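User: Here's a protein and a ligand (nicotinamide-adenine-dinucleotide). What would the complex look like?
Assistant: Let me lay out the input and then the predicted complex.
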Amino acid sequence: SHPANIKLNDGAAMPQLGFGVWQVPDDQAGTAVKTAIGAGYRSIDTAAIYGNESGVGQGIKAAGVARSELFITTKLWNDRQGATEPLKALDESLKRLQLDYVDLYLIHWPAPKQDRFVESWKALVTLKKEGRARSIGVSNFQAPHLSRIIDATGVTPAVNQIELHPRLQQKAMREFHARHGIATESWSPLGQGKLLDDPALTAVAKKHRKTTAQVILRWHLENGLIAIPKSTHEPRIRENFALFDFKLDSSDLAQIAKLDANGRIGPDPDRFS
Ligand code: NAD
């Protein structure tokens, strides 16, 4: 009745189901994170740009679960890319989080117009060697961005966190990741709540006597994806973790496969900053 771990390409283990905190205000993040850890989540996804790392750190402390049991992710914001800025940026994040390492540090966006993601990646390789980031990865990278950093360093990101949900199933990226041993992490796994009244998904939910959110999250897990749903409401935080007493069948999966519609909600990574 617990999420499995995904084995990353550097040997680390990452929970397949985690808790996202984008748009959770700093003064609510502590309560949200403590509630999530109390409900069983062990993986938390934040970012410097979310402005809530202090609250997240307080929630982690208040939850009273051993640090070694937790998997904490944060991200480098675009204005800190470069050869040395990431080293300072992670220090600042760690101070706010009251931690001495993160489990996963991600470059938040490739920001191709700046063209500094290769030097930023080299800095993350240093942070991994120093142990301040146990694992390193990227977010919103397209295949050519991934190829460039791998070719430049010989170090393959452990994770690429990308927008992924039934309306944006990201088949090509998932195949690229599989070929390179990169774990795929789904951001906005529920399509920011916009998928919850989809008729095909609600029909599958009704059949299993589950909620639509639970069906969507089960779909991520059964596809080998890492999912990090966000909610600040305790019943929903619990609901989104209660996924281990049912399974989608092949006809459910076939129905959901048909929803793929290039339905990107967030920015286009090739154009953003
Ligand atoms: P999400 O897909 O997790 O949807 C969250 C929204 O869905 C909630 O605000 C709520 O309105 C609704 N919801 C959640 N659970 C529900 C339930 N059980 N029943 C009914 N409604 C429910 O959206 P998200 O927050 O955008 O994405 C999740 C996490 O992904 C973020 O918190 C963040 O950690 C990460 N993220 C990363 C990036 C990136 O660029 N790397 C971008 C966006 C999000």
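Summary: Residues 20-22, 45, 108, 139-140, 161, 187-193, 196, 211, 213, 228-231, 236, 239-240, 266 surround nicotinamide-adenine-dinucleotide (CB under 6 Å).
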